[in-house]
Amino acid sequence: MPMKKILKYGLLVVIVALLGYNSVYIKKLSDVNASKGAQFNAAGFAAQLWNEKLPAKSDSAVAISVLKGAIDDDAGAAFDKYTNALAIGNYRYALVKGIAVIDAITADDLKITIQSAAPFKATVAMEFIYGNALRDASGLVNLQEFPNTSDLNSISEELNKIVRQKIIPAARPMLKPGAKIEFTGAVELNKEHIHFDDVEIIPISIKPVS
């Protein structure tokens, strides 16, 4: 083969190799995972919801006695008016508030009697804070903005963590049987199996009433 052809083909090989080197690169798996993890800060998002948006929502929460009465009168209309859910199904969530008397305090919850024209029993969760009640009851999370299910779940986890680590420890020393409290929180209700007595409230705030 003539020397000119050899040099020509050799030059082409070098050019192709250089182009391939510049167009293909490899990242360490740890770097890729780190970049993915940085895409959504669930703790920061939950803290912003809690501090900046949830207070106004809590102020407009429905009185739990009003919700119970509305469900007793017309469950379908009550669920449409007072509850939220991110997904289609029987489970619905509502932000509620009320005044109650503490009947008993356990490691897991408060046993309370809701003060209303027709008093009824409920519990305030104090230990096992889990699920999507806070996230969904708030109505502050748009499903369309979070196509990644793990991001949605992480929002719930972070909101629940705020309750476990801040709200409950701050409230416990002020609580005693017979005391009256004012509360706001989230409840989960099943449209097909409504059991309002002993409904569990995930607390957003608990304050003693003098």
Description:
- This protein is an alpha/beta fold.
- It folds into two domains: 1-39; 40-209, Envelope glycoprotein gp160, DUF2291, alpha/beta domain (OB fold (Dihydrolipoamide Acetyltransferase, E2P)).
- It has seven helices and six strands; from the N terminus they run H-H-H-E-H-H-E-E-E-H-H-E-E.
- The chain has helices spanning 3-23, 29-37, 42-59, 64-73, 75-82, 133-138, 149-171, and strands at residues 62-63, 91-105, 109-114, 120-125, 180-190, 199-209.
- A five-stranded mixed β-barrel has the order 2-3-4-6-5.
- Strand 2 and strand 3 form a beta hairpin.
- Helix 3 (42-59) crosses helix 7 and helix 4 (64-73) packs antiparallel against helix 5 (75-82).
- The longest helix has 23 residues, at 149-171.
- Mean pLDDT is 85; it is low at 4-8 and 21-36.
Task: Summarize it.
This protein is an alpha/beta fold and 210 residues long. The chain is built from seven helices and six strands.
SSE layout:
Layout: H1 3-23, H2 29-37, H3 42-59, E1 62-63, H4 64-73, H5 75-82, E2 91-105, E3 109-114, E4 120-125, H6 133-138, H7 149-171, E5 180-190, E6 199-209
Parallel strand pairs: 1-2, 4-6
Antiparallel strand pairs: 2-3, 2-5, 3-4, 5-6
Helix pairs in contact: 3-7, 4-5
**How large a portion of the residues is in β-strands, by DSSP E?**
15-25%
CATH superfamily of the largest domain: Envelope glycoprotein gp160, DUF2291, alpha/beta domain
- Provide the structure class: alpha/beta
What characterizes the major β-sheet? Answer: 5 strands, mixed, barrel
Number of strands: 6
| 3D shape | globular
| Poorly predicted parts | 4-8, 21-36
Rg over CA atoms, rounded to whole Å, is 27 Å
Helicity level: 40-55%
Mean pLDDT: 85
Assigned CATH class of the largest domain: Mainly Beta
CATH fold label of the largest domain: OB fold (Dihydrolipoamide Acetyltransferase, E2P)
**Number of helical stretches of at least 4 residues:** 7
Q: How many structural domains does the protein architecture include?
A: 2
Terminal CA distance reads 102 Å
Per CATH, the architecture of the largest domain is Beta Barrel
Helix-strand sequence: HHHEHHEEEHHEE
* Major β-sheet strand ordering: 2-3-4-6-5
